[in-house]
Specification:
This protein is α+β, with helices and mostly antiparallel strands. 21% of the residues lie in helices and 26% in strands.
Length: 221
């Protein structure tokens, strides 16, 4: 007996494309498309999280005042090895709070930024309190350290810092605004800075001098 049923067409006959493939290919990359997979932060819609802070650390003194960093000198040293040359760096940094405290630090490293960080950390730990008088120094002072010889003189308001090199860096860091300075010895940066710090540490104000002489302030006037 013959079968009168009409045969059904086979699934996907003639290489017909699936329904998903018939969709607009331009929609494949949209955020709402399930075929894209999970959103891992790529593209414009993803979130990369908060940015990291790569700024150098800020040092403070014991009173909470922010310290000012002055790079006096950076020295580069090269060592010849089998593969070529190997460089290392050393930095001399002066740090102060511009309110009468100042310190000096020396750091070595294979990178410039690292040696400055080391020197600044050392300087912030060796702060010394200096005697100032309204933005200048109380009296004339001379000091020596190694081959460095420095002469400092007080100046009237508006004069500015008449100095250069390491002397200027120390004066700006400690908070001096008017001074006359002269380096009359070696040009070595380390010795000039040490001589300047030694000169500032020997400063005495009027009350301290009267106390050392055994006089009272009222009688001296």
């Amino acid at each position: 007996m013959a079968n009168n049923e009409t045969p059904k067409p086979a699934d996907n006959a003639g290489g017909a494309k699936p329904a998903d493939a018939a969709a607009n290919p331009a929609d494949a990359g949209k955020p709402g498309d399930s075929r894209r997979g999970d959103n891992r932060g790529g593209g414009r819609g993803g979130s990369r999280g908060p940015r990291k802070d790569f700024s150098p650390p800020k040092y403070q003194d014991k009173d909470g005042n922010e310290l000012t960093e002055k790079v006096v000198f950076i020295n580069r040293c090269s060592k010849v090895v089998k593969g070529g040359r190997r460089f290392s760096f050393s930095a001399l940094v002066v740090s102060g709070n511009q309110k009468g405290s100042v310190g000096v630090g020396f750091g070595k490293a294979n990178e410039v930024a690292e040696c400055i960080r080391k020197a600044n950390e050392t300087a912030s730990k060796s702060l010394q309190k200096m005697q100032l008088n309204n933005g200048t120094i109380p009296h004339e002072i001379y000091a020596e350290s190694g081959g460095g010889k420095v002469l400092l003189k007080p100046a009237s308001p508006g004069t500015g810092i008449i100095a250069g090199g390491g002397v200027r860096a120390v004066c700006e860091a400690v908070g001096i605004t008017d001074v006359l300075a002269k380096s009359i010895g070696s040009n070595n940066h380390a010795n000039v800075v040490k001589a300047t710090l030694k000169a500032l540490s020997q400063l005495r104000n009027r009350d301290e001098i009267l106390t050392l002489r055994g006089k009272k302030k009222e009688k001296a006037i």
